[in-house]
Design goal:
This is Transcriptional regulator. Keywords: Membrane, Transmembrane, Transmembrane helix. Pfam families: YycH. By secondary structure, the protein is α+β, with helices and mostly antiparallel strands. The chain folds into 2 domains: 173 residues, no CATH class; 233 residues, TATA-Binding Protein (2-Layer Sandwich). The chain contains 9 helices and 25 strands. The strands form 2 sheets. The protein has a 15-stranded mixed sheet that branches. A 10-stranded mixed sheet has the order 5-3-8-7-6-4-1-2-9-10, sandwiched between helices. β13 and β14 form a beta hairpin. The radius of gyration is 30 Å and the shape is globular. 30% of the residues are buried.
Length: 459
Amino acid sequence: MRRWLEPTKTVLLNVLVLLSFCLTGLLWSNQPKFQFIEPAQYTESKPVQEKQLMQLVTPESVVFHYGEDRHTKAVATDGPYSMIVREMSKWIFLDFTPYMFSNDNWGEIAREKMGIEVRFRSTIPLSIVGRLVTFRDEYDSQIKGVDRLWLYYEKDEDLVYALFLSSEEGKMMRARTSISPKDLRDSYLATGNQMPEQIMKIVKPERTYSSLEGALPVWNMYYLPKNQVRMQQFRYSYETISDERLIEAYFLDPSLVRQIMERDKTVIFTDGSRSVQLRSEQQAFTFTDPAYQQRAQELSDEEKVQGAVTFINKHLGWLDEYHFERMKKSYNEKDLITFRQYVGSYPLISNSVKPIDTIQITSEAGQVVTLSRSLLNLDKYISNKEWKVMSGPELYQMIRDRKLADTDQITNAYLAYQTIFGEGYVDLMPVWVVEMANQANLYISAEANQGGGKVHGLE
């Protein structure tokens, strides 16, 4: 027995060594198929309505200047507005130079020279404006954006110049244009001739700006209709975004989402990282995602706005008609980007109970950190009623008669729709929004011949 023990051990050892070699060979020749794990991506919501950036950045109005202090205005529902917006893609600008005017120059440009003024809702980044028109030369990079583009005819030189104006920064540039005086006079101004006559109200800045040596303040102005105009009051039904749709739109894996009920009846959906907070009394929600920037990068203002548009496109989409309103810095240097809802050419203004008027995004280095929007969206048209709207002089007279405010402190006034909710419907009521210097806005019913009108001190 002992005689066979050692040979048996040797044979077993050899078998084990041979088996080891075989297994090693199998491992080398049959590598496992590793699957590359992609970075987590949001599940896109069901497509509703996507928009491109340039569909959301459009002029608020076009004002036509005829000299002798005569002005008319066209808005998005008017043919002359559409004609000017189509023509903008053909406009070429060159020879940009920083510019400044004296008060006399401003008075002459505003009241006596022929021209057209393309007005935006707020300051638009210059790179975005450069996609609406054509820049042939480099422009002054010190000006970040503009809120007005003013074309005017310089008779002595027989040229049409353009002013790129930033009321926010108190700066402007002047450029030569490809527009001929004949086109300005016989085409552009001719088409706006029948639009409602306007009264120009000038707001002169109280401070001067030192960024350009010797520069004088940039004049700002707004326009009020000289006579009564017509506007529709609408009634719509509305629909509510379901919890299921929210979860599908904003979370990577709906199966990981749990619901939390706060003491104040606020509902929170969370997957442990992202959250959606529902404010039932307001019928609104806020999405929050902790900022995680993979790499530091410097983004242009256009890229930041584009990032916000892309995010909304992929998460619920644009359930109604919206336009880019503004981008500004928050107290902690994050970017606050606002899109406002419109019906026709008029913005929606909501009270604090059910805000149905804006989508607001906070982004950091281009990544969306928070998004706030309404759970409600307009659904089916129910009815309408035509209103005669107070003219500018009637509005001012009513403000004086009722001692609502000092009209010298008014910085802007425009027509809008205020949302009033009923049982299963929402009324869009025409109002005058009167912006005051260092005071809350006034919201005044726009209906003419109302014996003083209804006024709301909403903020």
